[in-house]
Amino acid sequence: MGLKLSQTLYGIDWDQVMPAQYSSRLRASPISFSQYANYLVSQLAAPSASNARGGTNAPSAPNATTPPSPDFNIRSKYYQECVDTFGFFEGDQVCGVFAGNPVDWETYYFRYCHVTPTHRGLGLPAWFYAWLISQLQNSGVTKIQTETSPTNGASIRTLSNLKFVVTGNALSQQFGSLLKFTRFCSLQEEAAFVEKFCYP
Q1: How far is CA 105 from CA 48, 82, 178, in A?
Q2: What residues does each domain of the chain span?
Q3: Is 198 helix (H, G, I), strand (E, B) or coil?
Q4: Burial environment of residue 42 by CB neighbours within 10 A (0 to 12, 13 to 18, 19 or more)
Q5: C-beta neighbour count of 11 within 10 angstroms
Q6: What is the pLDDT of residue 69?
Q7: Which of 48-52, 75-79, 139-143, 146-150 has the least mean pLDDT?
Q8: Are 150 and 178 in contact (CB under 8 A)?
């Protein structure tokens, strides 16, 4: 497997800067797409399962009785080559996952985050987002984008506390109505947005 897109564009080797330690027992580390997909199978198979950010853009992983579809194989290749996948760990146990990827030379996308029910309420997504923003900003990224459901109050509060602002909305057949958020890592980028869109 060649270099991930984030290493090619931004020069970030996640294996060199991680693990990131949240506490004496919790940490975040890079994981393979296989580990990421297996986690989703185990956590999202239940009808009542829900994620920590809004439910967008997770790959539809096959289960043990369903062979991978051509669509899943294409997604797998995309994730393996372009998407950074991370796991939240307590000891050797994966208690959550995160996926993100470069959009272009200056923009990164927070694609998906899920935390197991037993580990929610600890602030893992907020901590990891802040850590990741710092790493990306130091590597020249000027904008970070993400989306979430307008009914996901916890996600909206987390993003707002990290200085993400609403910059649009989206409607899709798969996910319905979504709010688009942007975190400007450059004061010039933020000032340009405010001047163009926030004042009459």
Answers
A1: 38, 13, 25
A2: 5-197
A3: coil
A4: middle
A5: 10
A6: 58
A7: 48-52
A8: yes
- Distance of alpha carbon 136 from alpha carbon 198, whole angstroms: 26
Please tell me which residue, 134 or 71, carries the higher pLDDT value.
134
φ, ψ of residue 197 to 5 degrees: the values are -125, -15
Under 8 Å CB-to-CB from 122, ≥6 apart: which residues? 26
Q: CA-to-CA distance for 148 and 129, rounded, in angstroms?
A: 14
pLDDT cut 90: percent of the chain above it: 70
User: Mean of the pLDDT values across residues 117-125?
Assistant: 95
Q: How far is CA 93 from the centre of its chain?
A: 20
Mean pLDDT estimate for the chain: 86
More confident site: 51 or 195? 195
| CA–CA gap between residue 106 and residue 5 (Å, rounded) | 12
Question: Does the pLDDT value for residue 65 go beyond 50?
Answer: no
Q: For residue 50, count other CB atoms closer than 10 A to its CB.
A: 14
Rounded to an integer, the average pLDDT of 75-82 is 91
68: three-class secondary structure by DSSP: coil
* b/e code 60-86 from CB counts within 10 Å (16+ = b): ebeeeeeeeeeebeebbeebbeebbbb
Could you identify the residue written with the tokens 């996640």? 14
CATH number for the segment(s) 5-197 = 3.40.630.30
